[in-house]
Each structure stands twice: as structure tokens, then as C-alpha cells.
From TrEMBL:
Residues 243-260 have a biased composition (Polar residues). PANTHER family: 37S RIBOSOMAL PROTEIN S22, METHYLTRANSFERASE-LIKE PROTEIN 17, MITOCHONDRIAL. Mitochondrial ribosome (mitoribosome) assembly factor. Binds at the interface of the head and body domains of the mitochondrial small ribosomal subunit (mt-SSU), occluding the mRNA channel and preventing compaction of the head domain towards the body. Probable inactive methyltransferase: retains the characteristic folding and ability to bind S-adenosyl-L-methionine, but it probably lost its methyltransferase activity. It comes from the Eukaryota. The gene is ORF90889. InterPro entries: Mt_RNA_Methyltransferase, Ribosomal_Rsm22-like. Its main location: mitochondrion. This is Uncharacterized protein.
Length: 260
């Protein structure tokens, strides 16, 4: 993967020593000096390869020390991968509260809109995974619909150094289910809880209804909790905001119908 990414940055020419984007480095081992800082540090599928928990935490400490702005951690889309990401998030956030010179404070930039424990794991005992669609490149087919695709799941977290901006407290969409007249939106709120809202055109603002019709998993819905509560309470028939209103089997059925 690193070889392919480096080849793309070299415009496909292996003899070209300088990449077309300056400041991008590929390393098999960590730099020997902690004085080197990088704006973005990416670690993909490395936590699970560590021989012991102590080595894993030491790796996280070194990665966070090298990070100047963003640290991206990616693991497999399984329960074990999510547990490693959750462990890494809690380790960095807990050490960030000490505000030492070697461990500067930070917050979760994505996917969580908060720094609290995962509400999906806490309330439903389920890992929070992200799903994306991958398409195999088929040069013999000219139609995109004829190309084979597959769904890949992974677990990730993006940590950012510095305090959290208070003007962007929007909820994160977990499961949108769309129909002709309404949209079921399951969200992770900035307060650290889950909420299910049914957004209809007649009971909500047209701009919010339009945004809800285009959101996908992982997107942030541009609405504050106070606006959502005010709009919901002002209607004669309030939409169901309970998490248990739609089961996970319903989500799987909707996703399977989309894939077909």
C-alpha cells in the first residue's frame, strides 16, 4: 500500500526521487528523535500488530508526540479493531487532561462529536463501525453500474490537538433511512447520547429536510440539539425519538436492498 501511494506521488515514475507533493514521507520505522513534528500522522492497522499492550500504548504515545495537528488511526471493522481504537482514544484523551509538555491536550475530531465514551457501545453493546463502498477498476466495462462493488467496514478515529471548537457542535449521522416523505436519522449527539429523529417536510424546516435527504453514514447534520428540540416540541404530533424504535435488523434489510 505504501509503495502504491508513493508511486502515485511520483507520477508513476519510479526513477523520480522527489514526489509531486512536498512534505510527504513514508516511514517503516518511527523517527529516532521526538523533535520531528508532522501536520498529519496516519497509522493504519498497526495497533493490532503490537506484541503487548505496553508496546501498543508506547506506540500511541510516540505517534501523539510527533503529531502537530491531526492523528488518524485506522483498524479493521471488527469488534477487536473497534476495541483497539476505543482504547487509543481513551488513552490519549486521559493523558491529554494532564497537559504536560510531552503530552499536549487534544480532542476527537471525527467521527465522534464529543470526547465521552461511545454511546453505541454503552447503550447497545455494539461497536461503532464505518462502511464504505469499494469498486474494482474494470477497464473492459464502460458503465459504472456494471462494475463490481463490495462493502468494506473499518474502525477509525481522528484526534486533533488543541481545544474543541464550540461553534460546530453538530450531531454525527449513524444510520439514515430514507423514504419518499420522511427520513429516519439515528445520530450521535455532542452531549454523548444517541437519538432517533423522524424528519418530515411538513414538521421541520425545509433546509433541514433537504439536508437530511442527502446525508450518509458519517456525515454531520447541520443542526443544533436546541433547534431540533424546539422544532420537535412545536409540532402537534411529535416524532418518535427513541433509539429502540428501529432495530438493527431493519438497518440490515435496508442496506441489503440498496446493494441489490
Amino acid at each position: 500500500m505504501n509503495t502504491l501511494a508513493q508511486l502515485l506521488l511520483q507520477d508513476g515514475n519510479q526513477q523520480q526521487l522527489v514526489s509531486c507533493i512536498s512534505g510527504v514521507h513514508f516511514r517503516q520505522f518511527l523517527p529516532s528523535s521526538a523533535e520531528h513534528k508532522f501536520s498529519v500522522v496516519v497509522s493504519a492497522y498497526m495497533l493490532m500488530e503490537q506484541p503487548s499492550p505496553a508496546d501498543r500504548l508506547q506506540l500511541l504515545h510516540d505517534l501523539w508526540t510527533m503529531t502537530d495537528n491531526y492523528l488518524l488511526l485506522v483498524e479493521t471493522g471488527t469488534g477487536a479493531g473497534f476495541n483497539l481504537i476505543n482504547e487509543a482514544k481513551e488513552f490519549i484523551l486521559q493523558n491529554s487532561q494532564r497537559q504536560s509538555e510531552q503530552f499536549l491536550p487534544g480532542h476527537v475530531f471525527a467521527p465522534c462529536p464529543h470526547d465521552k465514551s461511545c454511546p453505541k457501545l454503552r447503550e447497545k453493546n455494539q461497536p461503532c463501525l464505518t462502511e464504505s463502498v469499494l469498486r474494482n477498476v474494470d477497464f473492459t466495462s464502460q458503465k459504472l453500474s456494471e462494475q463490481k462493488s463490495k462493502h468494506a467496514r473499518y474502525s477509525y478515529v481522528i484526534l486533533k490537538k488543541g481545544p474543541r471548537a464550540q461553534d460546530t457542535e453538530w450531531p454525527r449521522v449513524l444510520h439514515p433511512i430514507k423514504s419518499d416523505r420522511h427520513v429516519h436519522v439515528h445520530m450521535c449527539l455532542p452531549c454523548g447520547n444517541l437519538q432517533h429523529v423522524v424528519i418530515t417536510k411538513g414538521k421541520f424546516d425545509k433546509h433541514l429536510y433537504g439536508c437530511a435527504g442527502h446525508v450518509e453514514q458519517g456525515d454531520r447534520l447541520p443542526v443544533s440539539l436546541s433547534q431540533l428540540t424546539t422544532t420537535t416540541s412545536s409540532t402537534e404530533q411529535q416524532p418518535d425519538t427513541s433509539i429502540s424504535a428501529t432495530s438493527d435488523n431493519d438497518f440490515d434489510n435496508v442496506n441489503s436492498n440498496r446493494r441489490q
